[in-house]
Amino acid sequence: MSRQARRLRVAIVGTGNIAAAHAKGYKANAGEAEVVAVCDTDEQRATEFAAKHEFGTVYTDLDTLLRVEQPDAVSICTPNYLHAPQTIRALEAGAHVLCEKPMATTLADAEAMRKAAEWTGRVLYIGFNHRFIGKFNLAKRLLDGGEYGRLLTARIALGHGMYERLSRMWFGQRELSGGGTLIDNGVHMIDMLRWYGGRVTEISAQAHRLLATEGDVEDNAIAVMRLADGGIASLQCSWTWPPRYTLLFSMICEHGTLDLSGDEVVSFKTGDEAPRTLETPALDPNAEQVRAFLAAVQGDQPPFVTPDDGIAAVRVALGAYESSATGRTVPL
């Protein structure tokens, strides 16, 4: 399919914090798309968001937006429990969808989203924007190049200290969020593990509320995973890790190591005298994610992140919660 001559007409649904990242991404790709409408049940917030970013018409009802605007594509930036119904409605209205992570709060909802994309023939893209961060993108190319061999082990820890604020929001209510820090922060790293090392085949986890006095989701979680090719990985997620967002990510491979904990990739290969800091591309993950989504919509390239990726990450996260609740290792 050739590139469309006109710019794609886009709507952003939900105008909370993550919507700003989508706004930035569309502005960086203004030659390909324009945001013609925004939607939020909080009309004042939506109006302020539209004015700040110089976007189009404000709506408080998604169905009205879809009927009136007939957008080519929609970004779903709402709380997790709304991802499935709103994505399906947008797909059925003929729009392509970029849905924030996690894809859904249940496997049934995630699979219903995939089926809706299949029968409507629309693109459904899941917002795993970490794939577009320079160091993670470079590490993927290095691993795919084969010089480091198979991924043997990965050690990942990430989090921040915002448990008090998040536990008082919808993030802290399992019915709305699907879980706490593991499905919020950890789902990105679950996707990275799958991207680097293949399918997760089993998981053992502990996920608990240790400091938060509000809400009913975990503020800390630790999981150990087995990968399809025999590798193992540990994942620690925390909402009680002050003062700011922190990420530690290191991998041991058959023929070397890769450390992604800093801004650049630190490599050590068998035969090297010392670790090397590699030149890492400076990518804007928000702009790159939107660029890749629009390219898939226009038929210029296949989707970089698929519904299957979203479903797999949800399956692993829910497996972790099952393991924590039952005290057993859960096969996936």
Number of beta strands: 15
Identify the CATH homologous superfamily of the largest domain: Dihydrodipicolinate Reductase, domain 2
Helix vs. strand class? alpha/beta
Q: What name is given to the CATH topology of the largest domain?
A: Dihydrodipicolinate Reductase, domain 2
- N-to-C span: 37 Å
Q: Major sheet: order of its strands?
A: 14-13-12-11-7-10-9-8-15
Radius of gyration: 20 Å
Q: How helical, in percent, are the residues?
A: 25-40%
How many helices in DSSP terms?
A: 11
- The name of the CATH architecture of the largest domain is 2-Layer Sandwich
Task: Give structural notes.
With 332 residues, this protein is α/β, with parallel strands linked by helices. The chain folds into two domains: 8-130 and 287-305, Rossmann fold (3-Layer(aba) Sandwich); 131-279 and 314-331, Dihydrodipicolinate Reductase, domain 2, CATH 3.30.360. It has helices at residues 17-28, 43-53, 62-69, 83-92, 107-120, 134-145, 163-167, 174-177, 181-197, 285-297, 307-326, and strands at residues 8-13, 33-39, 57-59, 73-76, 96-100, 124-127, 151-159, 200-208, 220-227, 232-238, 246-253, 256-259, 265-269, 276-278, 330-331. α5 links the parallel β5 and β6.
Identify the notable features of this structure and list them briefly:
2 domains; 11 helices; 332 residues; nine-stranded mixed beta sheet; six-stranded parallel beta sheet; Dihydrodipicolinate Reductase, domain 2; alpha/beta
